[in-house]
Amino acid sequence: MVLCQARDSRTDELIDLRLRRVQKACGQLCYTSAANLIGRRVETAPNASNVEEDEATVEGRRMEMALNFFQSKRNPTAGTRRCPVPEWKAHGFNKHETCGACSSHIEQMRTTACAADVVTDKVETHEYHIMYGVFLLPLRQAPHPVKILEIGLGCDMHYEPGASASLWPKLLPNAEIWMAEHDAACVQESVKRGWLPGIHTLTGDQSDPAVQQRWIQESGGAFDAVIDDGGHSNWQIRSTFAALWPTIKPGGFYFVEDMQAGRNSGWPQLTPRDHEAVFSDIIQSWIEQLTIERGNWRPSAGKHPLPADVAFIACQREACVIAKACKGAPASEDGK
Q: Is the dihedral of CA 85, 90, 96, 102 positive or negative?
């Protein structure tokens, strides 16, 4: 839960509402953890009983607050937000080629992102340029224009929305890019301000089955890559994967970011289904099914059946990529 640092009193009101929702859903401990995570030091939680009566008032201001958010002065982050030193430099090498065949793609991903006016947390806070450099950048040599869906525009981040949305066209100039976001007002304003040129947008709750099917119908499915950088709760990740994995083309990739949130007590898991399974545990079960003969599985390994057509799973710190086997036909909205 990372919220805009440039806040006024009405923004604080919306933040307070969100915190009260957290408190109502999972109690005082979750409330305190979430408040501390965004710098709200609290001794006691507010009364959550009036959440419903506040919602109509606060939610009615969402568009007005979105406009106010975008009118806030936004300073470019290039040169001010620190990108991590690449490993080959940290080890004293002069050329990235010394780190292996894939390092040029990894470094290109990192340097392109770091040079942007708004630096995505994919390279500033995390090191996701590793998996995207290895698996996503080679799609530039694909024999057809690639199609990518990313979930999460970054409307709740401490920098302006669309940091990664503006990055993908630079790295994959011929790609068809789709961005999905739960905050429709933020998407509308981002489009209005010209921050998403050439980007197709989808809106709605990623864990809602009706929304998932609408996204597939509106986009046409058949993705070369899907990136889940959405809400990060276990159920959001699980349900979205179940809906969108069939739409991945053979040889395509499904990326899941911020998996550390699945067992982080400071990250609210707001529904009972979030506690049914941690997505990292599911991934580890799938890896065992891929790498160990069935008769030698641990008793718990078969609890989460491996999805059809998984070729391999590769993980780095806080994230994994699931690759689809190069066989069969790509799934699309009509199932043909």
A: negative
Domains in the chain, number: 2
125-181 per-position pLDDT tens digit: 788 899 999 999 999 988 889 999 999 887 776 667 778 888 999 999 999 999 999
The pTM assigned to this predicted structure is 0.71
Q: Domain of 304: which CATH number?
A: 3.40.50.150
Q: Which domain holds residue 33?
A: 9-71
Decide if 129 contacts 113 (C-beta within 8 A). yes
For the chain, list the strands marked E by DSSP. 147-151, 176-181, 200-203, 223-228, 248-256, 310-316, 319-324
Which tokens go with 183? Answer: 């905050």
How is residue 259 annotated by DSSP? G
Integer Cα distance of 105 and 135 in angstroms = 9
- Determine the pLDDT at residue 153: 85
Burial string for 296-317 (b: 16+ CB within 10 Å, else e) reads: eeeeebeebebeebbeebbbee
In a domain, 115, yes or no: no
